[in-house]
Amino acid sequence: MDTMRAYQLVAWQQPPELREVPIPEPGPGEVLLKVAGAGACHSDLHLMEWPPGQMPFEPPFTLGHENAGWVERVGAGVDGVRVGEAVAVYGPWGCGSCRACRRSSENYCERQAEIVTMGGGLGRDGGMAEYMLVPAARLLIPLGDLDPREAAPLSDAALTPYHAIKRSLHKLTPGSSTVVIGVGGLGHMAVQILHAVSPARIVAVDSSLEKLALAAEVGAEVTVPAGPDAAEAILEAVGGRGAELVLDFVGNDDTLALAARCGRFEGDIALVGLAGGTLPFSFFSQPYECSISTTYWGSAIELIEVLELARAGRIHAHVERHPLDQAAEVYERLRRGEISGRAVVCPHG
């Protein structure tokens, strides 16, 4: 049996391992992908540290939920993709038949509890390997002339903020403002998307001066260092009235408190980051009629829209490429906050 290398989580709260595993053979309806790139996402760090028994799935499985590559082989009954075609993998894998899945929102599949796993790299084998098995062709989106190594982050780092922004797009009229808290992998894409699809003034917040410099380069009009004076600086930048949309890509107690300070009446605060913070809620804890929500990934249709923005040259993931045997080092650098943009593991160079 032919084998491949795969970077796998083998036990909760244990370091992942680079292992030799069999190359999967696609069955009926399945597609084998030759992985071009797999993005290293901060949420993987949370996954590694998760306590045993808290998730609906168990190790071992290959990490990497942000993937793109080339179709290597197809199983019986597969159509709509061709061998050699460059594709992005739509990350959240639902049942494919419930109401949410029928409208391409498998991120909100109504049968998640029955399916147990959440997708490749989330209970099933993901893309931190030379090959990846995708259970259905509907989960593959053609990339056209986009390089799959560069496009891999678009399937999460761009899709997730795009979905969060699109929900509030009607509020981002001329003269409006947005605040992006945390301009790492997702945040630097959020700045670009906001710049591409709305006239809103963009304020970026981060503790890293390097990441703030990247945010300014890709569309932020104002950058604010995180710290005790951040709220005052943000409110000054948005004219003292608060922002119509605040996107929190960190999600700890401090960033949530900052988001509540910087929103405005009838505005939106979207919590995307998974740092585990909480925000006390009361009548006066946020501006009047300011909505606070969580969002998770986006729909397959929204991924198609994201790829169209990329093909038009309006957004571009800032990528640093690494070979598969550097995956552990990549995640350690990510943990230390040393990656600006997105690190992508490229198993085939």
Q: What's this, in brief?
A:
The protein is 26% helix and 26% strand. The protein has 349 residues and is an alpha/beta fold.
Describe the structure.
With 349 residues, the chain is an alpha/beta fold. The protein has 2 domains: 3-156 and 298-345, Quinone Oxidoreductase, Chain A, domain 1, CATH 3.90.180; 159-294, NAD(P)-binding Rossmann-like Domain (Rossmann fold), CATH 3.40.50. The chain is built from 11 helices and 18 strands. Strands 3, 5, 6, 9, 10, 17 and 18 form a 7-stranded mixed β-sheet that branches. It has a 6-stranded parallel β-sheet with strand order 13-12-11-14-15-16, with helices on both faces. It is globular and about 65 Å long. The relative contact order is 0.16. The mean pLDDT is 96.
Radius of gyration: 20 Å
Task: Report the end-to-end length measured between terminal Cα atoms.
Answer: 24 Å
Q: What's the CATH architecture of the largest domain?
A: Alpha-Beta Complex
Number of domains: 2
- The residue ranges in which pLDDT falls below 50 over 5 or more consecutive positions are none
Structural class: alpha/beta
| Shape label | globular
Question: How many β-strand stretches?
Answer: 18
Biggest beta sheet attributes: 7 strands, mixed
Summed over residues and divided by their number, the pLDDT gives a mean of: 96
Helix/strand order, N-terminal first: EEEHEEEHHEEEEHHEHEHEHEHEEHEHE
Number of helices: 11
The third-level CATH topology of the largest domain is Quinone Oxidoreductase, Chain A, domain 1
CATH homologous superfamily caption of the largest domain: Medium-chain alcohol dehydrogenases, catalytic domain
Q: In percent, how much strand structure appears in the residues?
A: 25-35%
- State the share of residues found in helices, binned by percent: 25-40%
The CATH class of the largest domain is identified as Alpha Beta
